[in-house]
Amino acid sequence: MKKYLFIFFTLLAAASFNANAQSKLTEQEVKELLCHKWKAVIMEIQGKQYNVEKEEDELFLTFLKDGTFIDSQEGNKSAKIKWTYTHSTMTLNTGGVLKKIFKIDDKELKFKSKMDGQNVIVTFKRVD
Question: Could you say which residues form the signal peptide (predicted)?
Fold first, then answer.
C-alpha cells in the first residue's frame, strides 16, 4: 500500500511541477512559442482520441507575429485570420473561436476548443 501511495504522490508532484512550469511562462514567451507552424496529431472528442497525423487532409496552423494566423488543410484553400492571446486565462481567440491552452513548449501545443458544439482537445506538433 505504501508503494502505491508513493507512486501516486510522485505522479501528483510531477503533474503539479509541469502545471507550474507552464504557468510561469511570460506572455511574451507564450507568444514567441506560438509563432510557428503546427501540425495536428491528436484530436480528442468526447473522451476518445483520434490520431490525425496521417490523415489525408492534414490540418496545419501557422501563427504569425503580425497577429494573423493561417489555418490550412491539405487540399483546401488556406484562410488568414486574426488571433489574440489573453495571458491571464491562457486563451487564444482565433477569428472569434476561443481556445484554452493546456500545454505549450518548443515542440508541442495542446488546446481545448469547441467544434460543432462539442469540446475538442487538439494536440499539435511543431513542424518548422
Answer: 1-21
Chain centre to alpha carbon of residue 115: 14
Alpha helices in 1-128 (DSSP H): 2-23, 27-34
Mean pLDDT of 16-24: 51
pLDDT tens per residue, range 113-123: 998 889 999 99
In the chain, the number of structural domains is 1
Domain presence at residue 8:
no
Q: Do the domain assignments include residue 68?
A: yes
The Cα–Cα gap between 17 and 68 comes to 32
**Angle, CA of 73, 77 and 79, to the nearest 5°:** 85
The label of the residue with cell 513542424 reads 127
Whether residue 13 lies inside any domain: the answer is no
Q: How many residues does the chain have?
A: 128
